[in-house]
Amino acid sequence: MKSLLVISLLAVSSYVGAQTDRVSVCDVARAIGTLQGGSLASVDVNADGRSDVADVRSLADFVLSTAVTGRLAGHDYVDLGLPSGTLWATVNIGAESAEQYGSYFAWGETSPKSTYDWTNYAFSDGSSSSAMTTYTATDGLTQLQPQHDAASQLWGAGWRMPTDAQAIELRDESLCTWTPHTLNGVDGYMVTSKSNGRSIFLPYSGYVKVDCLYLSGKAGHYWTSTLNNTTTARSMVVHTSGFAMSNLRYHGRCIRPVACFSFSLAR
Predict the structure, then answer these.
(1) What pLDDT band is residue 260 in, cutting at 50, 70 and 90?
(2) Are 236 and 247 in contact (CB under 8 A)?
(3) CB neighbours of 67 closer than 8 A, spacing ≥ 6?
(4) How buried is 134 (Cβ within 10 angstroms: 0-12 exposed, 13-18 middle, 19+ buried)?
């Protein structure tokens, strides 16, 4: 039963991804039931021997976390119907599912590391927190160049780190509903488009300072590609008490890429 359910879920995942409109939980439940030769009542998602509300909630999580609308260079994205046309990835860099934290990066670095400090930060001479060598008032750079963009370097052409403006757009509550949510045991935010009902999940991934992970399970920390000032860059920090947007560049934070097309997909 369990192995058959996995096969069914994979088939439904392809089915959901092919739709232009959001597929309801009942649609997915019926599809699973049909694939298993049964009915909606026979669906036992969590394999506990019964069909109940918990199964419906699991199906809801499945729909919300797999409503893929496209794929670019081997990675899935969701079209939230945003005015900018920005397409948000379904997972963080280094993660295989929506609830996984993935890898942590200092701002402008393209590889994770074991410790995060000014002394080993790529754009510091190591002598002090203010001794930045790149992205300073001198060079005038305020946006990460492609060679310093982890999404571009690790995911390939068409992917990049979101700009500050794109992060602000995602946080616009007139465009998206932000709901505290637990996905497969991991706390975070479900961000749901008000225009088309599609969603992405942002786990409370925390951040790394030196070699310690802070605020894991309490806040999500995501870099943008935009400089704030000499020592800080703009980030999207999401937690139940609100948002913050600037953090020290050497800290290790997660990255949720965006797909960059020169056109907006038809909706």
Answers:
(1) confident
(2) no
(3) 16, 17, 22, 23, 78, 198, 199
(4) middle
Interatomic CA distance for residues 50 and 143, integer angstroms: 53
Quick one: pLDDT at residue 125? 84
pLDDT tens for each residue of 36-49 = 444 555 556 566 77
Residue 110 CA to residue 159 CA, distance in Å, equals 13
pLDDT digits over 214-235, tens only?
999 999 999 999 999 989 999 9
Length of the chain measured in residues: 267
Task: Locate all alpha helices (DSSP H) within 156-211, ordered by sequence.
Answer: 164-171
Positive/negative CA dihedral, 256, 94, 152, 200: negative
Q: What is the spatial distance between Cα 160 and Cα 225, in angstroms, rounded to a whole number?
A: 8
